[in-house]
Design brief:
This protein has 197 residues and is α/β, with parallel strands linked by helices. It has nine helices and five strands, in the order βαβααααββαααβα. The chain binds adenosine-5'-diphosphate. It is found in: Cytoplasm.
Length: 197
Amino acid sequence: MKKVGLTGGIGSGKSTVARMLADAGFAVVDADQIAREIMEPGSPVLDEVAREFGADLIGPGGALNRGELARRAFASREQTARLNAITHPAIRAESERRFAAAAVAGEPAVVYDMPLLVDLGLDKDMDLTVVVDVDVEERVRRLVATRGLDEADARARIKQQLDDDTRKAAADVIIDNNGPKEALEPQVRELIETLKR
Ligand code: ADP
């Protein structure tokens, strides 16, 4: 089974490409979705987060106040590292479980949709690394227009991530999503052909 890492900066269209690959029948492991699932009410990861960042983060129904956690965890590099030390191993373990399940199911390939793939050096575990690339200014425009982020927030989030040149340097395949969505389709079709080979 081929492991295909799919990554890109926030707002690059990574999820859009992942959806196209899922529609084409590929198994997709979504790291953001796992990150949410490991902090569902009652989970051991959520307990640990509450111990480290404050029990008041958990509401009466057991749900996490994500906004407040983000405020506390992104207040400094040190706090961010503390949160990552709790969540990253759990995300990694669950991702590995899903890769193994895909292998057991006989999938020829599994796509790992992971924003921090290159940031965390996980691209080295992949057979193919695909980077979706869009210029920063266009990503800011799309994040403001479609996700309702304000411009300063969009820029702050982009700044927290790896820079585009370093990410692209790790790519085996670069998908250019600076153009309209229609321009993605032929590039994704070509990727699919590569994956079938
Ligand atoms: P990511 O997962 O990389 O953060 P998304 O796939 O969610 O990015 O895309 C960010 C936003 O930009 C979404 O609202 C998406 O529909 C939109 N988008 C993606 N590709 C294009 C494109 N080529 N032109 C315009 N908008 C796009």
